[in-house]
Amino acid sequence: MAGLKYQAPRGTFDVLPAHARTRGRIAETAAAIFARAGYEPIATPSFEDTELFERGVGHSTDIVRKEMFTFEDKGGRSLTLRPEGTAPICRAYVEHGMHKLAQPVKLSYTGPFFRHERPQAGRYRQFHQLGIEAIGSDAPLADAEAIGLFAELVAELGIPGVELRLGSLGSLSARQTYLEELKAYLRAHEEELSKEVRERIDVNPLRAFDSDDEGTRAAMASAPTLVERLEGEDAEHFGEVRALLDAAGIEYTIDPTLVRGLDYYTRTIFSFVCDRLGAQSEIGGGGRYDGLVEQLGGPPTPAIGWAAGIERILLALEEEVATEGRDVFVVTGSQGIGKAQNALAITLVNELRRAGLSAEFDLAGRGLKGQLKHADRIGARRVLILEAEGVAQLRDMESGEQRPVDTAHLVAEIAGDRS
Ligand code: AMP
Hints:
By secondary structure, this protein is α+β, with helices and mostly antiparallel strands. The chain has helices at residues 17-36, 50-57, 62-67, 86-95, 140-157, 172-188, 195-199, 214-220, 226-229, 232-247, 292-295, 310-317, 339-354, 368-377, 410-418, and strands at 40-41, 47-49, 70-72, 78-81, 105-114, 126-135, 162-168, 253-254, 266-274, 282-288, 303-309, 326-331, 359-361, 380-388, 391-396, 402-406. The chain has two domains: 17-170 and 230-317, Bira Bifunctional Protein, Domain 2 (BirA Bifunctional Protein, domain 2); 328-418, Anticodon-binding domain (Rossmann fold, 3-Layer(aba) Sandwich), CATH 3.40.50.800. It contains 15 helices and 16 strands. The protein has an eight-stranded mixed sheet with strand order 1-5-6-11-10-9-7-8, with helices on both faces. Strands 13-12-14-15-16 form a five-stranded mixed sheet, sandwiched between helices. Strand 15 and strand 16 (402-406) form a beta hairpin. The chain is elongated, with a radius of gyration of 28 Å. It binds adenosine monophosphate. Adenosine monophosphate is lined by residues 84, 115, 117, 122-124, 127, 129, 260-261, 282-285, 307-309, 311-312.
């Protein structure tokens, strides 16, 4: 077998049990928060027609230009592993006629997503998001609720060092006027910009705000921003969102240079960043996408949503992964009652488990000493040593105390222990 090595593909990882537990806690916490607010779970397929993302996410975005895992199926159709969740959910909204339901339709989701990015800490090619969408409301209250639910998740999970940045991109038409102004500004400063930004002035000028290049950053420091140019209903909407966040006691900073890597955003955008993370400091973000449903063939439908990266949350939590421990470890095989002992052991373990206790026994043929060591290793709080039919010693692993118990009343004995 020398030389034959299989590893998870570049940029992907195995979720091992220790992390799976923390992931479970994150998912459960989020699910409870979403359920209390009436966001119902939805799940869409892991791949979609490529065109959905081209139209939905936008031809000019990095995601569509460089990062999609696109393949042809055997019938020659172009499919793409989903790089994000909003376009598929809007597709489902239109496909299932959800505009006929009471609006807004409030949905939540979680699952794997795929982007062919350069792997680094916090950036993978298969990663996991959880998120919500409220489709069919343009009320500032919907924005404040969505942002509030993210803040709630941060608080309940106890993610340290998190800051909320807020911006607004205005409506699509207001944005067009602003984009012309921005393009003119970029052209006037062309020699200060990086090659990449220069080449994309016409395609995606907003991304200039996102550049890592020093010259570009300096030039962008005095560029006109959308937040300064907001007018009429856009300005009013943003003002109301801010007032509602203030009323709800949610702290934020206005970031006039905030942009997001997807084309569909309109009006409110936001980003939750964590100072415990390195270059990939965003744990999640989102915003309004008032034009997307219509663009995908549905009626004009305003909407808002966000997604959080589960791996980023894990990195930010840096949680000490404590083992769960076990309530009881039942010693098997090594005592004097032979085969009957294993029959008794499996009966008792099943009984304990049905009563809601965690219980295990030895499956590796260890001797008594080995089993006690193993019980200790898995964090067993008690060990049951069967001596004869119906008679056993229950050892408390912390104090080392041992007492005889009647196996017919084991569950009651242990329940008595706990009270
Ligand atoms: P986006 O869908 O681009 O708005 O990203 C939302 C969140 O998903 C980000 O804030 C990250 O937490 C997470 N995320 C996006 N891309 C990746 C990636 N390649 N690896 C890990 N997490 C990611």
